[in-house]
Amino acid sequence: MYGDVKLNGVIVWQSAFRIPNIQCNRGVNIGLVNTCNCSVLEPFRQFDTHGDASAGTELSDYLQQVDYGTIIIGVSADSPNDYTNYLQQALPALDALGVDVSDVGFRGAFGFVAQKGMPDKTVFRKAPTEAEGFNNPPHFNVTVAGKPTSQLSYGLVVGVHGAAKSRTLTNLLICNHHIAIELRG
């Protein structure tokens, strides 16, 4: 089993089960997108929801602290869940992103791209069972428009009688992001 995430054609995360020279990042892996320079903000965080009893709570806590509007990439590897159901504690935080993985079982698979606080924009694919994950693993491409920005006071003009007026620039499109997620059985 192999999976990768590409941002603008560059691999930013990959995982494999029993393939030499590629680490197995079992569980749920989360990456945050820097919308200013089309990269990940930090290396993907791994939450071993298959083998670590605290990973579901840690994943939930992590997702809750992410800033509103942040682009979040989530991808499972090897097995995000097992019979102990450590993923259970993270289900409400994932649901808030528009990601329902409550039916993903042992060696099922999923991937998503979400914007924190805007679950209607989420792109999400899953293969709930091991057979589906092997025969028809989730894969998709997402294009995220660049972050509009305005500089609210790039120049401050003091007029008559000391009244302050701020000049603003129109919104600028910084970049576009192309995110490709592919999980292979």
In total, the number of domains comes to 1
> How many runs of DSSP E, i.e. beta strands?
14
Strand-pairing-aware structural class: mainly beta
- pLDDT averaged over residues: 75
> Looking at the structure, what is the overall shape?
globular
Strand proportion: 35-45%
Q: Tell me the helix content.
A: 10-25%
Question: What is the succession of H and E elements?
Answer: EEEEEHEHEEHEEEEEE
Instruction: Give a quick account of the main beta sheet: strands, pairing sense, barrel closure.
Output: 6 strands, antiparallel
Low-confidence stretches: 149-175
Number of helices: 3
Radius of gyration: 20 Å
- Alpha carbon gap, first and last residue: 4 Å
Task: Give a topology summary.
Blueprint: E1 2-7, E2 10-16, E3 27-34, E4 39-40, E5 45-47, H1 55-65, E6 71-77, H2 91-96, E7 109-115, E8 123-127, H3 130-135, E9 139-144, E10 148-149, E11 155-158, E12 164-167, E13 172-173, E14 177-184
Overview of the structural elements:
It is a single chain. With 185 residues, this protein is mainly beta. The chain has one domain (2-184). It is 12% helix and 38% strand. The chain has three helices and 14 strands. The strands form four sheets. Strands 3, 4, 5, 6, 7 and 8 form a six-stranded antiparallel beta sheet that branches. It has a four-stranded antiparallel beta sheet with strand order 2-1-14-9.
Structure in a nutshell:
It is built from three helices and 14 strands. The chain has 185 residues and is mostly beta strands.
